[in-house]
## 1
Amino acid sequence: MNAKLSLQHVQKTFTDGDRTLTVLKDVSFDIFPGEFVAIVGPSGSGKSTMLSIAGALLSPSSGKLLLDGKNIADASEKERQLIRLHQIGFIFQSSHLLPYLTVKDQLMLMTRLSKESKKDAEQRAERLLTELGLRHRLHQYPERLSGGERQRVAIARAWMNEPDLILADEPTASLDTERGQHVIEQLAQQVKQQKRAAIMVTHDERMLAYCDRVITLEDGAVS
Amino acid sequence: MFLALKELRYEKTRYALVAGIMFLISFLVLFVSGLAQGLAFNNASSLETMNVDHFVLDEEAEHQLTRSLVSDEDQQVIEDGEVDATPFGLHMTMLIREEASNVDVAMMSVDFNSPIAPTIIEGQTPSEGQTLIHESIQEEGIEIGDVVTDNASDMEFEVSGFTEDQTFSHAPIMHVHEEDWREMRDGEFIVSTIAIHGGEEEAAQVGEQLTDSEVITLDEALAGIPGYSAEQGSLTMMIVFLYIIAAFVLAAFFYVITIQKLNQFGIMKAIGSPVSVLAKSLLVQVMILSAVSLTLAIVVTLGASQIMPEGLPFQLTGTMVAISAGLFLLTAIVGSLLSLYKVAKVDALEAIGGAK
C-alpha cells in the first residue's frame, strides 16, 4: 500500500536575526490511508512546524514531502493553496469559524472556494453535520454554539472538500475531557469509514487511545 | 459576493455606520457641487446660454468684458470677414428708483435678431426707450410698464418684458435698444465684445486678422468676471477636500475593520482560499456600501433641491451627478487599497498561531 503522506528527511530552519534555528532536523515517517496518527512531544519540539509543512503552509528547507506520491516540497504558493483547498483538511486549536456564516454556510464556503456544484455540496454538508450531531444547528451562527459544537463544525468543514489528509492541531485544547473525547471519537470514526489519513498533534494523553500510532518528536527529530 | 453579502448582513450596525458616514460625505459633495455649478451659472448665465465658445476682446481688457472696447478697425475686419460674429455692448450700471433701493444691473445691447439675443419669457421685444430685464428683477417689485432710470446716463426706460437666464456678475441684465445704446455714447455704438459663432477654426481665423484685440475662450471670459474665479476656487477647494476626506475616512474605517479580521483572513488562507477571493470580497463590500450611500445621497440631494428656496442658486446636471458618483467610487477604491494590501500580506501561519 502506498503512503498517503510521506516525509523524507525533512529539515526546516528559520533565521532569527543572525542566528539560524533548526526546528526540524531530520524527520521521516509515512502515513497510510485509514490511519489516525498522533504526534506528541514537548513544547518546542517542532510539532506545529511539522504540521504546517505537512499541511502545505510551509515549505521544508530540505527533504521530500510526498502527498499521494507526488513531491510537493518545492510547490509554488499558488500550488500549495490549491493543495490546501482540495487535498487537505485543517482543524485548529480553536474552531476558527467565520462569525458571520451559519453552520451550513461554513461548509458551503469550502465548496464555493473549490467551485464545486452546489447541489451535491448541500447534501454532503447536511449529511456531515447530521453525522456529527449538528442537524439542529444548520442555520445558526457560531456565537450560539457551545465550544464542542463549534469544534465539530470545524471538523465537518475540514471534511467538506473530501480531503485525503486531515491535520488537527490540538483540536481538543479548548474542550473539556468529555467533549474532547467525543470529538476525537467522531474524527477517528470518519477516518476509518472513509479510508482517509489523519494526523493529530496533541498534548492530551487520553486522546491517544483513539489513534493507531503515536509518533514522538523531540528536538526536531522522531524519537 | 457570498462572503461579502453574508458579512454585511451579519454586521449590520458596523457597516451601517460606515455607510452613514459615506452618505453624509457624498451628500455634502453633491450639494456643494450643485451650489458651485448654480453659482457659476447664476453669475454669468448670459454668457453660458449664448452657446458661443469664443469672444473677441480688447487686448488690454485683461479678459474683462465690461472693460473691453473693440477698436473700429478690428470691428471692420470681422464684419468684412467670412466668419459669423455678433457684436454686443456691455457695462455695469445701477437703476435709480424713488422711494426704493437702487438695483445693480448689467446693461447690454445686442441685435434682437441675432443668435445671441435673449429669450423673452414675458412681454415683447423693446423698441427705443424700452428695456427687457432678467426675470429676477421682479423680486425688486419692478413690473412690465414700469419706468426705470439708468444712473450712468440718466436715461429713462419703460420695461417691455422679462428674459430668462440673463445675468452677468450676479446682476440681472437689462437689454436696451441699439439706438439707445448709441445715444448714450454720443451717437457711436460702443462694442465691448464680439461673439464668434463657430468652432476653434473660425476663432483662429478671426484671431489672425486682429490688431488691437484678442480672441479668448468662454472659460477665460468667465474667469475674467470679477469674483468668479475666487468664488469657484473656494468651492472647488471644498469639493476637493471632501473627496480627500472621504478617501481618508474610508481608508481608516476599512483598515480598522480589516485589522480586526486579520485572523479570519489568515484562517481563510490556511484552509485554501486564494487571496483573490478575499480581495474581491473586500472590494465588493466597499462597492456595495459606496453604491448604497451614493444612491441615497443623490436621491436626498435631488429631493432637497426641490424644496430649496427660489433664490438659492443650485444646479445639478446629470453629467455632474455622474462625474461625482464616478469620482466617489474611485475615492472609495483608493481608500480600500491599504486594506487590500494588508489582506494580501496576511500570514496564514500567524493567524492560526502555529509554527516558530
Note: Chain B has two domains: 2-44+229-352, 47-224.
## 2
Amino acid sequence: MYVAVKGGEAAITSAHELLAEARRGDPAEPELSLAQIGGQLTLAVDRVMTEGSVYDRELAALAIKQARGDLVEAVFLLRAYRTTLPRLVASLPLDTSAMLVRRRISAVFKDLPGGQVLGPTFDYTHRLLDFDLARPDGQRPPANEPEPPATTDDQPVAPMARVADILGREGLLQPETEADPCAEVGDITRDPLTYPAGRDVRLQSLARADEGFLLALGYSTQRGFGKNHPFAGEIRMGEVEVQIVPEELGFAVSIGSLTLTECEMVNQFKGGKSLPPQFTRGYGLSFGESERKAMSMALVDRALRCRELGESPGAPAQDEEFVLSHADSVEASGFVQHLKLPHYVDFQAELVMVRDMRRKFESRETSGEENGSERETALRG
Amino acid sequence: MSAQEAMIPERQRWMAALAKSEEGELEAAWAALPEPPGYELLRAPEVGLAMLRARAGNTGERFNLGEMTMTRCSVVLDDATVGHAYLAGRRPRAAELAAVFDAILQSPQRREGIETSLIAPITARLAAAKARTAARSAATKVEFFTMVRGE
C-alpha cells in the first residue's frame, strides 16, 4: 500500500525543469526534429508504435523525443495519448498476401516463386562499427538507383505467393481457418483478459507485448523449455492497404496504407489422436519493420497453442497466464516502478512488527528458555 | 441499380487516391478551381482511431492487431451532394478538402476536371513510388546456392 503525500511542488517543478534540460542536452548542438527521429531512427519508431499499439509515426517520434530515447517510457506515453482519442471504426482484416513486398525470405524453401528478397536488412552485415557514420555527412550516398520498370496502374506489382500455401497444397501444413466468421473479436483494451484465453486475445496481447520479454520466451522454447522445432517458413515486410466500411457508405474504402512485418513459423508436429502428422504454425505480425518482434511473437504463439495440439504444457512459454499477464511493458513497468512511491505507512507497520519480533527473540535468548522450534516460529512469524 | 450504386467502384477508386493525397495537392487543386462550390460541414474533421484487424496466418482467426490514427469529415455542397473523407493519420484540413472533392466528383459534369487536375496526378505519383519500391527491392533478390560437399 502507498499513500498520497502533500507538498514538494517546488521540488517537483525543479526536477521537471532539470529533466527538460537533460533532455535537450548540449544547447550548442542542434535540437532533434520529429522528422529526423521519424526518418532516421525508424526502427525505434516502429517498436514504439507496435508496443504502444498505435500506428502513427509522428506521435511515436514525439514520444521518443519526450522520453529521451527511453523506448519503454515512450510506449507508455503513446498508450496514454491513445486513451484521449475516440475509436471510430474497426478495419476489415488486413490482407498481407496483397502486400507491396519490400522484404520476403524463407528459411525452408530456397527457390520459391517471387524469390528471396532481402530488402533493407542487417542480415549479412558484419556488425562492425562503421566509423564513416561517425563523421558529419558520413552517410554514404544511395547506391546506383535501378531504372524503375515501366509500370502503370493497369499492371500492378504481382503479389507474392505464400510459403504456407505451397505447403498447404499437399496438406502438410495445418490450415489456418476461422471457426466462426460472425464471432465477436475479443479486445483486451475493452475487456480484461480471462483464462483460458482465445487465440484472438492471445495474438492481440502478443502484438503489444514487450519485445524483450517475447524474445526471451521464444529463445527459451528453442533451448528446450517447450521445444517445438521451429523454422522461419516465411518473413515478409512491406506496405498493406487499410480498408474500412463506414456506416454512412456501406461499402469498403481505403484510408491509406501501413508497413507491417509478418512471420509465419512452421513447426514440427508428430500428430495426435485426431490430427495427422503435419507441420503446425505460429503467427507473428507487427507494425513497421520489426522482424525480431514478429519472429518472437510467432514462437510464443505456437508455444501457447500447446493445449489445442495435445501437448502437455510445462514450460514457461506454454503457460498462457504467466506469459500474457506479464508481457505488457506498461503494466510491468508501472507495477515495478510503483515501488518508488511513498510506502511510508506500510513500512512503518513492518518496522513495528520486526522490532517487536526482535524484542521477543532477544528476551528469549537472554532468559535461555527458548527451544529450537519456538525460535524458528518467531523468525517465520 | 441506382446511379449511386453504379458509381461505387469509381468512388472507391477516387476515395483511395484522396486518402493518400498530400495536403499540398488538395490545397493547390482547391485554389485552382474556377468556381469553388459553397459547402457546409456535416461532420467537422474528427481525429480518432481505427482498430486494425488481422487474421492468424492471414486466413485464420481474426484478431485486433492495434490501432491507427485516422481523420474523418463529411460535408454537404450547396447543391445538396454529400461528400465523405476517411484518411489515415491526423490530418483535419486534408480530410475537409478530401470530403469536398468526394462530393464534387459525384457530379458527372465536374468529375472530369477534378480527375485530370487532382486524381490522375495523385495516382501517377503513387504508381511511380510503388514502381520505385518494387525495383529497389527487386535489386536485393538473391539466389542461394546449396553447396554439395564431398565431391
Note: The beta strands of chain A are 54-55, 87-90, 100-105, 116-117, 230-244, 253-267, 280-287.
## 3
Amino acid sequence: MNAPTRPIFFDALRRNKSTAIAATVALGIVLAALPFLIGSHLGNSWLRILDFALLYIMLALGLNIVVGFAGLLDLGYIAFYAVGAYLYALLASPHFGLHLPVWLIIPAGAALSGIFGVLLGAPTLRLRGDYLAIVTLGFGEIVRIFLNNLNAPINITNGPQGISGIDPIRLGGVTLAKPIDFLGITVPSLHAYYYLFLALALLIVFITIRLENSRIGRAWVAIREDEIAAKACGIDTRNIKLLAFAMGASFGGVAGGLFAGFQAFVSPESFSLMESVMVLCMVVLGGMGNIPGVILGGVLLTLLPEIFRHGAGPVQQAIFGKVLLDPEALRMLLFGLALIVVMLYRPAGLWPSTTRRREFRGDAA
Amino acid sequence: MDIFVQQIINGLVLGSIYALVALGYTMVYGIMGLINFAHGEVVMIGAMVAITVIKLLADSGLPGVVIVLIGLFAAAVACMAVGFTIERVAYRPLRKAPKLAPLITAIGVSIVLQNVAMLVWGRNYHSFPPILPTSQHEILGATITSLQVAIVLIAALTMAGLMLLVHRTRLGRAMRATSENPAIAQLMGVDIDRIISLTFVIGSALAALAGLMVSANYSIAHYYMGFILGLKAFTAAVLGGIGNLAGAMLGGILLGLIESLGAGYIGDLTGGFLGSHYQDVFAFFVLICVLVFRPSGLVGEKVAERA
Amino acid sequence: MHFSRVPSMTLAIVAAIALIGCGQKEEPKPQAAAPVAPPPKPEIVVKLGHVAPLTGPQAHLGKDNENGAMMAIEELNAKALEIGGAKIKFELLPEDDQADPKQGTIVAQKLVDAKVNGVIGHLNSGTTIPASKLYFDAGIPQISGSATNPKYTEQGFSTAFRVMANDVQQGKVLGDYAAKQLAAKTVAIIDDRSAYGQGLADEFEKAVVAAGGKVATREFTTDKATDFAAILTKIKSKKPEVVFYGGMDAQGGPMAKQMKTLGLKAKFLTGDGGCTPEFIKLGGDATEGQYCSLPGVPLDQMPGGKAFGDKFTAKYGQIQLYAPYVYDAVMVMADAMKRANSVESAKFLPEIGKTDYQGVTTKINFDEKGDLKNGAISMYQVKAGKWEYLETIGGSPVEAAKAAVAEAAGAIKEAAKDAATTTGEAAKEVAKDGVKAAADAVKAAADATKAAVEKK
C-alpha cells in the first residue's frame, strides 16, 4: 500500500476543514451515484450484492462493538440478525396476518435484539476468551434450533419451512419492491433498497463513531486492554459489558429486519454458525476496532466470493484453454486461501486502528 | 431398564468418539492457547485417506484387522503431513500476532481443506467396506458391537498414553514448559518450534485415528463431516476444561451421555413439549450452566487472565 | 500455500491420464472443432440457468442435478432443433447457491441479468422460494426438479413450475402405504428438521392418523447427523411396526444400519430422499427389505427411461437422485418452446402450463398452480441389495404410462442395445462441443476412474 501518501492525506483531512468538506461531498456523490454506475455497467446482480454488502457492514459494525471495542469474542452474533429478521417476518407477513409498518418493526427488532444481547451477556460476564466464544456459539445455535423447531406444539416460526410472502419494506406508503417514480426519475427497486440500507448503515457508522469517542467507548477499550485495571479505575465493568452486547445486538437486529423485508422470505438456514463466523472474519480481517477497517472487511468478504464466482471459470478458460478444476470448489478454495494470505501478511487486519498498529509493533502477547 | 442401559452405552460410544477428537483440540490448545479450528477437517482427511486405502485393499485377501491397520497407518501419515503443514503455513508466522488472527487463518485452512477434499474425493458419500467383524455382545439386555467396545477402549488408552507422554517423558516436560511460558522455555534450551510442530503432528495422528473410528462405526465418510464433529469435540473439550487431557476425555464422555440421555428422555421429562430436536439445545444448556459456575470447565485449572 | 496445490495438480494429472486412457480418439477433435464455422442459418443461443448447491454438504445432489440438465442440453443440441426458423443452440449457465437463501437470490439476480430464457432449479425449497419472486418479476419461467415445499407454487407466480410431487402428495401416499399395505398399527416418525424432511414427515403423520394408525413417537435428528442410537433406542422402547424417516440417504442408510445393530426390527420406510443406491451402499445389508417411495414411475418402465438411465450412468456415473427430474424439466421447457415456436420467455411461458409431455420420470401435466397433476408415486423395496419396483400408486398417468410402455417396448429394447455403445456416442457428442466439453470429458473420465476404483 502507498504508505507515505495515506497518512498525509488523512492528516490533511483532519487539519483542513475545507478539504474535509470537499472529501465528504465527493464521497457522498460517489455513494449516491454508485448504484446507477454499477447497475448500468455491471448489472443488477452486482447491485444486489452491494445491497447485501451494506447489510453485512451493519452486522460487522455491530459485532465490532463487542469484539473490536470491548474485546469479547462472540461466535453467535448471527442470532441477533435472526431475531430481527424473524420479528419482521412475524409482524409483517400473512403468517399471523399482521402487517405492521416498518418504522415500528425495525426499532422493535433493534430493541428485542438488544434484550437478547443482555440475555446472552448476563450469564457470561465472568467468562473470557475461548470460553466466552463457545458459550456465545452455543447461544447462537440455541436460537437457531428454536427457530427451526417452534412450529409445534404451537406454530410460531413455521419451523424449517420458513416464512414466505413477507411484506416488502414500505416507506410513507411507497413500497420499495417496485420501481419508484421520484421527480420524474424512475428509481428501480434494488436502487431504492440501496439508498435505504446506505442511510441506515451511515446512521450506524455515525453512532459507532460517536460511541467510540465517548466515555462508554473508552470504557470498552479499557476493558479490552485490562479488565481488572478498568475495574480498579471505577468502571462498572458489568454494565459496560452488557451495554456492548446490547448495542452490538441491536445493530444486528436492524440489519435482520431489513434482510427479511428485502428477501421476502426467512428460514433458519440463513442463520447458521457459518454466518457468524463470516461476520467475525469481516471484523478481524478488516481491522478489529477500526471503523473504516471493519467496513472494508464487510465489503471485501461479501464481494470476494462473488468475484471468484464470476472469475473462476472464465479465467481458467483463458489461461489453460479449458476448465481444469470445478469452478465452484475453486471459488471456495480461493476464498479460504484469501483469508489465510491476508492474515499472514496483515495480522492486525487490512486497516488496523492506529493504537492497534502501535501495539502490534511493540509486544502483542 | 435395558433401554436405559442401552442409552448409557450409546452415550459412552458417542462420547468416546467426541473424546478422541477433543484430545487433539486440547493438545494444541494446551501448548499454544490456540483453537485449531481446522482440526475437524484433519479428522475428515484421516477418514477419507483411510477409507480410500481400505477400499483398495479390501479384496486383497488380507485379514480385516490388518487392512484397517494399514489404512490407519496411511491416514496417520497423511494427517501428520497435513497437520505439520498447517502449523508451518498458517499458525507459526502468527505466533506473535493478535489472538484472533490465527483463528481466522484456521477458518481459512478449514475451508481450503474441505474444498480440496471435495476436489480429490468428489462430492459423494463414501461407505466403509464391511471388512471388520460385526459381532454383538449383550450387556443387561443392551447390545454393543465389538467395534464400539474397541472405540471406548482406544479412547481411554489414547488418553492414558497421552498423559504418560505429557507427564512422564522428556518431550512431555518440554511441552509443559512451552505451554507455561514459551519465552522462558526457549531460554532453558527447549526448541519450542520443534515442540509445537511435534504437538501438531501428534494431534493430527490422533485425528487420523478418530477419523478412522468415526467412519468405521458409522460406515460413512464425506468431505463435510469434519465441521460438525469438530464443533462437538470443541464443545466437549471446553466442557471438560480445554487444555486438560483428562478434561477432554471427561467432557467428551459427558457430552455423549448428555446428548444420548437428552434425546432419549427429554420428551418424556417435558411432557412432550421438547423433543429430541432440542438435543443440542440441551447439550449447550448444560455447557453454559457448567461454565457459569466453573468458568474454566469441569477440571480445567484456573487460567490467569491473559491479555 | 504449496500444500493445497499439490492435490489439485495431482488430480489434474490423474484426470488427464484418465482422459488419454479412456478416449484417445476424442482428444484431437476438440481442437478441430474449436473454431466453430459460421452456420448457414441464423443461430439463436438459448440460455438456461441451472441452480443447485455445488459446494457444502448437499453438493453431491447439486452436481447430480447439474449433470441431468447438462445431459438434456447436449441431447437437445445434438438434435439441432429449429424454432421460429432459426437454429437453436442451448447453453447451460450452471450456478451454485450453496443451499443458502441469500446466495439463492444473488444467483437468481445474476441469471436475470444474463437474460436467461428460462431457469431450471433450484434444488432446495429454501432457495427456490425467495428466488422465484425474482424470476416472476422478470417474467422468466422456472421449473424445479426437486423443490418439494408446497409454498413454492402457492405464491401465485405464473412462472413457477415443478416436475416433482410436492410433500403433501408424497407424504399422503407414504402414510397410506404404511397404514394399509404394511398394515402398521403403530408407527414411529423421524425427520431431519430440514424443510423437506419436516414437510414430508408432517404429511405422513396426517395420513397415518387419517388411516386409523397410531403415531407411537416422533423423533428428530439433523441433516448432518451420523449417530441415531439415542433416538432409535427410544423408538425401540415404543415397539412400533414401521419406522418412517423424512430425510436424505446420507442419514437414512446409517440409520437403517444402526436399527439393525440395536435390534429394532420394525420395517423402515423413507421418501425420495432415501430412495437411492447411496442408501443401500451406506446401510449395507441392514437395508434389505426396507421400503422407499419416489415420485413418478420407475425409469425402466418409462419409454426412453432405461436409455436415459444407462446413458447417464455411462457419462456421469450413478444417478444420485433428482437428475432424471431435472432432465425432464429441461425437456419440458424445450418442448414448450417448440410448441410456442419461440424461445422468448413471454411467448413460451403460457405453453409450459399446457404441457403434455412424456418424461422419463412420469407423464407431465401441470395444474393451475404449476404443480404436477395427479403425480404418481412409486414404491420400492430393497431386494438382494437393489431397489426393486413394487407398485405405482395414484395418478392417472400410470395407465397412460403403462400403455406407452407396451407401445415403446420395442424402442426400449433398441435403446438398450444402443446403451451398450452409448459410452462411445456420448464421447463423440462431447467432442462436438469443443473446448468446453473437453473439460467435461476430463471430469467424466475422472469420475469413471473413481467409480472403477470404488467398484474394486
Note: The mean pLDDT of chain A is 88.
## 4
Amino acid sequence: MALGIGCTARPGNSRNNKTGSWRVFYPTMDTEKCTKCGTCQLICPEGCINQNSDKTYSIDLDFCKGCGMCAEECPDKAKAITMKMEEK
Amino acid sequence: MVDRTIENFDCGHRACGGCGASSAVRMILKGAGKNVIVVNATGCLEVFSTPYPETAWKTPWIHSLFENSSAVASGIEASLKKQGRLEKEKVLVFGGDGATVDIGTQCISGAFERGHDFTYVCYDNEAYMNTGIQRSGSTPYDADTTTSPAGVCSTGNKLPKKDFPQIIVAHGSPYVATATMAYPMDLMKKVETAMKTKGPCYIQVHTPCCTGWGYDGAKTMEIGRMAVECGLWVNYEIIDGKLTTVKKVKRVPVDDYLMAQKRFRHLFKPVRNDAEIAKIQAIADKNAEKYGIDIE
C-alpha cells in the first residue's frame, strides 16, 4: 500500500524522487571564493544546498535541477558558483 | 528572530527549475517557526509538492479543495482552541492567486469575518500556472495568457489586477502585508510578525513563474526585484488598517521589466506599442502616488 492509514504519507518521502536527472547545467562550488553568506542555501527552490560542519556549503546533485538561481544570486564579490554543461 | 535552520519543505518535489513559489515556501516556513499546521488550496504548490504517494512537506499538511482552504483552516483553528493548543501551534494557509482572488474568496471572507487566528499566505504568480497559464483576477494588465491571448485584435489581458489586500483590510484584519520572494529577509520577517499577531492575517507574496511568464529560471530573483523597482509591485504593511511601512525605491521605467518577459513581448514586436506601455506606466505611477514609494 502506497499511503498510510488516513491517507497519510511519511514526511518528506519525496526524496525517493531524484530530480537531479532533469538537469542540463550543473553548479560547481568554489569553496575558496565562498564568503559563507548563505544566500544560495536560502533561495534554492529545491533546498538541496546544505551547510557543512566547517560552515562551507555543498550542493546535493541528486536533487539539483540546475536552474542556476544560486550562481546568479551569489554576491558579485564572491561569484563562487559557476554553471557547467552536463555531460551524459 | 527567524530561525533559518528550519527545513520543513524537502527535496524531490516536481517544481520547475527556478520556481519562485517553491523558493518562497521554503522561506515562509522558516519564518513560520517549528510548530505549524499547513492547509493548502489546490494549485501549483499542492500539485508539485505532493505527487501520489509522496510528500515534500515535513510538517502536518492537509489539502481539501480549491475553494475551501480557509474554511478547513477555520475548523483546525477552532479545534486547537478547544484543546488549548493554540498557544503553541499555529495554522498557516497557502493558496495561489487563483484560489485566493477568484475561487476561494467567499470562504476567505467568511473566515476573516469570524476572526479565526490563522495566517493566510497567497503566493501570487499572476495566473493559473498549474493548469496551463489561464488568466486569473490577479493577472496584470496586458499580460499574454492562454485565455487572454495577444494577437491582431488583442493586446492580452484587458482587465486590471485585483487589489485583494485592500479587500482583506476592509474585513478589519489586524495585519495585512505584501512581500516578494526577491527580498527574503523582509518576507521571513513579515511571516513571523503575522504568525505572532492574534487574529486572521494576510500576506500576498509575489512569486515570479519562469514557465508562465517566459524567462530563464536563473533570473527569478532578478525579475522579482525589477517588479518592485519599477513600481508595479509594492511591498507594504498595513497594521490595524493603517499603512505603516512601505518599501521605498528609486523608480525606473516599466520597460525593462516588461521586456524581460515573454508574456509582454507583443508590446515590443514588431514595433513598440507606446499607447499600451504608457497605460502600464500609468498603473505604476498610480501605485507610487497611492503608497508614496518614491525616494524624494
Note: The longest helix of chain B spans residues 274-291.
